[in-house]
UniProtKB/TrEMBL annotation:
One of its GO terms (molecular function) is flavin adenine dinucleotide binding. Binds 1 [2Fe-2S] cluster per subunit. It comes from the Bacteria. One of its GO terms (biological process) is pyrimidine nucleotide biosynthetic process. Coiled coil: none annotated. This is Dihydroorotate dehydrogenase, electron transfer subunit, iron-sulfur cluster binding domain protein. It comes from Rubinisphaera brasiliensis (strain ATCC 49424 / DSM 5305 / JCM 21570 / IAM 15109 / NBRC 103401 / IFAM 1448). Its cofactor is [2Fe-2S] cluster. Keywords: 2Fe-2S, Electron transport, FAD, Flavoprotein, Iron, Iron-sulfur, Metal-binding, Transport. It holds the Pfam family DHODB_Fe-S_bind.
Length: 286
């Protein structure tokens, strides 16, 4: 976890629709925007309200910069599924939220020529910033990607659930493949099918980042293991504090020194991004 986590108030600047039951908030929060990197997250709760009492974790969608290139705000993609997200969907422009972060470990530096991003459902939200960094269209930290190509494989059940991908339209060099389980748009089937094609046809070994439903990430991780390709997963683990104090977000991870060969790690501190091969999937899936 970053040692520079800040606690502040963020003003809601804009809200727009991303997909069915998905929306985006734009927040004025220069303290977080100046520090956060792709794959990290922050905690949000309504200011001066105590129901819900606890904050909720949200991944960075992207940062906002002013005309001088100075980070001034952040975008966050939200799936309206519970009490807190329902409140965020209704809260008025100009109101404030309590925010603390950046938290956790983001996606690592790319060491290969090709990055494949595999997203399911709301799991596409971290990959706007990732794509912009990899394609060297935006700088979030003092390092440069070695990747020459980036791909996004994005899957949903049906066309009506697909997100508005206009934020990817200004990313020349990004190949996007859409999959729907019912065949209503793009390729019919699961995201693992085009991923398998990419891995089998690759001239050199790519790197894979994935975010979405746990079973999808498990399938992606297993496919990468079969092809001896490095895979990193971003877990959407429920959290209560974000600092590692409550242990509500623990994840089973391989540990040769542990009696059972694995132990728990806190997703908010050691994650939320983990190597796919390090996750003990049978324990995580129950």
């Amino acid at each position: 976890m970053t040692s520079c986590a800040a606690q502040a108030r963020a003003t809601i600047l804009e809200r727009d629709t991303l997909a069915a039951e998905n929306f985006r908030l734009r927040l004025h929060c220069p303290e977080i925007a100046a520090q956060i990197t792709p794959g990290q997250f922050f905690m949000l709760r309504a200011a001066d309200r105590y129901d819900p009492l606890l904050g909720r974790p949200f991944a960075l969608y992207d940062t906002i910069v002013d005309e001088h290139g100075v980070p001034t705000g952040i975008d966050v993609g939200i799936h309206a599924i519970g009490k807190m997200t329902g409140l965020l969907e209704q809260i008025r422009i100009g109101e404030e939220l309590e925010i603390w972060g950046p938290l956790g470990n983001g996606f690592p530096e790319i060491q290969t020529d090709h990055l494949i991003q595999v997203a399911g459902g709301i799991g596409y939200t971290p990959f706007v910033a990732v794509s912009r960094e990899v394609l060297q269209q935006k700088t979030y930290r003092e390092r440069k990607s070695s990747a020459k190509q980036a791909s996004l494989v994005y899957g949903v059940r049906t066309k009506s659930q697909r997100a508005n991908l206009s934020d990817w339209s200004d990313l020349p060099g990004l190949d996007v493949e859409i999959c729907t389980e019912d065949g209503s748009e793009g390729r019919k089937g699961l995201v693992t099918e085009p991923l398998r094609d990419m891995l089998e046809q690759a001239d050199s070994k790519p790197t894979v980042f994935t975010c979405g439903p746990v079973r999808m990430m498990h399938a992606v991780s297993e496919l990468c293991r079969e092809h001896e390709v490095e895979c990193w997963v971003s877990l959407e683990t429920p959290m209560a504090c974000g600092y590692g104090a409550c242990f509500s977000c623990v994840v089973p991870v391989t540990d040769d020194s542990a009696e059972m060969g694995w132990d728990y790690r806190r997703s908010c501190v050691e994650g939320p991004v983990f190597r796919g091969n390090d996750i003990v999937w049978e324990q995580l899936l129950g």
